[in-house]
Amino acid sequence: MAAAFSCPVFLPSTFSYNENRYHGRIKIKINATSSTKVKTLNEIAGAGKGSSSLATSTEIGHLSQEQIRQRIPTKKQLVDPYRQGLIIERGVGYRQTVVVRSYEVGPYKTATLESLLNLFQETALNHVWMSGLLSNGFGATHGMVRNNLIWVVSRMQVQVDHYPIWGEVLEIDTWVGASGKNGMRRDWLIRSQATGITYARATSTWVMMNEKTRRLSKMPEEVRDEISPWFIDKRAINEDVPEKIVKLDDNARYVNSDLKPKRSDLDMNHHVNNVKYVRWMLETIPDKFLESHQLSGIVLEYRRECGSSDRVQSLCQPDEDETLTNGVEQSLLKNMILTPGIMEGNGYLGPLDVKSYGYTHLLQIKGDSKNEEIVRGRTRWRKKLSTLPYSS
Amino acid sequence: MAAAFSCPVFLPSTFSYNENRYHGRIKIKINATSSTKVKTLNEIAGAGKGSSSLATSTEIGHLSQEQIRQRIPTKKQLVDPYRQGLIIERGVGYRQTVVVRSYEVGPYKTATLESLLNLFQETALNHVWMSGLLSNGFGATHGMVRNNLIWVVSRMQVQVDHYPIWGEVLEIDTWVGASGKNGMRRDWLIRSQATGITYARATSTWVMMNEKTRRLSKMPEEVRDEISPWFIDKRAINEDVPEKIVKLDDNARYVNSDLKPKRSDLDMNHHVNNVKYVRWMLETIPDKFLESHQLSGIVLEYRRECGSSDRVQSLCQPDEDETLTNGVEQSLLKNMILTPGIMEGNGYLGPLDVKSYGYTHLLQIKGDSKNEEIVRGRTRWRKKLSTLPYSS
To answer: What is the ipTM of this complex?
Structure first.
């Protein structure tokens, strides 16, 4: 049944804008304003199987409908006009052009960290989508599905030099590399499309978990054969020694307890999405600090999944000493000196100010006898130059 | 200063995919990997003003940077390759092609209502963006800004026949029309790009408010002159008599109190975004019902803005009697009979089942002496055919 979709309809290299464009549409006469002759998706599914355009078969399972509607490529694609994506870097990297949408920005018209994390997830999945390796899961390859394996993220680091603003056109590059024997690294770069200036960079490491046993797994040979041809030895962030994040305890300065995952926080894997974790972390920092500071960097170390019934506690602790001591902060400092424009406040780039502020974070599940760590984090902040709204 | 941007660089009618594409980029030599010669955005802004490409002026205010980065058109544009948008309907309607992103879907891989509402907001703003009328606010025209006016939504109605799934390509049409003497109607249609089938339809009414006095305003002549040439007399939803939504009181079956807007809930207008209101409404419905039902329609009547310091209470009440009595439900029922595929459960379209379930909603600010209504709502639901995840 999947054979019908082995060659999904993608328009090659140009995207024609035409009011009556129906390229790639399954050729069934649809009159959307006529109320009695609308075809159901079931009928369309029948037609998509090669039967006549008047097919009314209702025997089609939902998988074929899903395939018609999603059109996941089963072979490598070089361009995707709908996603505005293309394969770069000698055939193994991915670049996508995106516009910062109105609902992806906060009160100052700048993209939120959450939006950037969402775009990282989206471009990563679209990279796998284009590769022809995507099975019907959350980024898992065909070989992974055969072995009941899913991806889990173990570490994520993001540096934001400039926050994109509403309506700005961005280019996001992403690529993968080896990480130890059984892991994978995925990096991202966000650039302004208009100027080429780098706005943000990120790196992450991923390992495989058995979906049934929930235990970490070695990378099977068949999976290595799928993904290793895509590895590039290039890094978005140069970090010699990954920073160690101390574990907070009940003495932490700020504590937010009894956080409950909601239905809307669950993603396709039926887990609380990582982006939600970051929201819980940042919401624990006092409003007064958040109003006058802007996040410049974050490191996350994931320890454990969080399910929909868990009750979560968020702890955070500001650095007592504002001197810059450890690895991440030094690399951040270096970056700040090299990029004089880093001190962005609401779109205005002012004079160099190297002072930065750090917080240590912990999300944990509060248990009767002991607590279980979900994620440890470090955030770095710079002072905003103005707390006025971006416009008006 | 705005003159420099009166002719934003948009690529006409074709979108060339080229790895080294720099069309539309401000021609400044940028070497993103070289660490010492990166130009700051201030320097770019200087260059954008017509000075030499080596300009290092730092006197540029943030407005010019914002203009370079946003490139809001000051004249009508017919196509926007970055937004995949084009002007249709004899020059006054707008169509945008979008792909359902991985973070816009819930656990069943179907787009959430929140995502649809976000896409409505986005396409509406992009419509104004293309018109050349957009000033530097949240959809306000130049004439509105001159009169200190902003848009406020007074009513919103959405019908969802099919939920789009992750990766699906959609076409969203939106247009405006007159609503009484001082209001504007905005409608939307969401279609599958592959089949042309309509998935969702929506209509909304908008009035103008004085930004300073917070009082509703008549539509000034200069604003009418701007927007009335864009009016189309066409409706996405035919509704003869708008349903009256009863006001709930403390006897409502389900009550969720002490809801607090968070920083991340504020939009560009520094208000709690409408989408957040819907989340608060839906979260008050018991999980057990939400797990087995899918939202098919919603009507919202906005009464009052909600600020960041308000404490909000969400009430809801299921219909006692499942017979379909009022206007909206009858039009919904009619729609269901005409579109046999409406009973979608997780992508599977099963046999016709006209039974639907209704809830009445109220969000209010709990005051010491009296409560203040924020929004009244009605939701309609259909039973899911399966509560299993979409895939696996």
So the answer is: 0.79
